[in-house]
Amino acid sequence: MLAARRRAAVVVASGVGAVVLAAAPASAHGTMGDPVSRVAQCYAENPESPRSDACKAAVAAGGTQALYDWNGIRIGDVGGRHRARIPDGRLCSAGDDEFKGLDLARADWPATKVGSGSYTFEYRVTAPHKGTFEVYLTKAGYDPAKPLAWADLDLDHPVATAVDPVAADGLYTFPGRLPERTGRQLLYAVWQRSDSPEAFYSCSDVDFGGGSAAPGTGAVGAAPAPSASAPTDEQIAAGADRSTVGHHGHGDGDAATSAEPSIETAVNTPAVEGSSRTVLAETGGGGSTPYLAVGGAAVLALGSGVLFLSVRQRANRR
Length: 318
Known about the structure:
Blueprint: H1 2-22, E1 30-34, H2 38-45, H3 53-62, H4 65-68, E2 74-75, H5 82-85, E3 112-113, E4 117-125, E5 131-137, E6 160-163, E7 167-168, E8 171-178, E9 184-193, E10 199-207, H6 233-239, H7 263-266, H8 288-317
Parallel strand pairs: 3-10
Antiparallel strand pairs: 1-4, 2-10, 4-8, 5-6, 5-9, 7-8, 9-10
């Protein structure tokens, strides 16, 4: 009888573990689509045969897989501590060696032409979640031929901030305003989820005109770098099976930010954007609420199992 009770306790504990695992938040993914991020640009060019010298160099430095994983430049447990976790010179890769080719200090990255004034930002997303976007512009005097440092960004004056924008057609769209600049600059986007400590990062090269730098130098007066272009929906779909990060919040192998089965599967909730029964983390109300609820269910299940074993034990003693 004692062995039977032990087996029953293991079954109960295993069931609780499964519920807790199902409660882990699913990982979101994305990158800046307009202005086009470096990783999106190189993916659009074709990871196997990129056209621009900058993307060729990025592949030579980090390989093609980083481009297929275009929506996975992230830190799973950063919790807002971006400067503490990402060293100077590694901002575009978020310190991840897989994406080190994006950190190359070059003045010939394909750039999006912009001007001062209002600007509508578009962020390509493959797993929407609540969170805050902040976009920073480099300071006047930025030299793209030098490694990007935190001090190069005007962190006191983000050019765009958006809290919980609503995704439509695979894009988060939010307004911003660009200050006066000339020549090549860089926009650094941080998407910090509110339902998880995970954050995503991207670098977008932009050209304000009025002067351009020669490739690989800080000199002014050379031909401008190629114009940037975002990947099409067809290109994204065609390369999805080559990605190792997953395109719907699962399959990235990071237990801190994804789980199989997911929480929406655990509660039989379809993950359809716009539905009244979307992924729980996407519905607001504090991202921790659904996980606490499922965790509470797990505690109740454990309590019920313990109570059952206790009753059985007393009955056997009689």
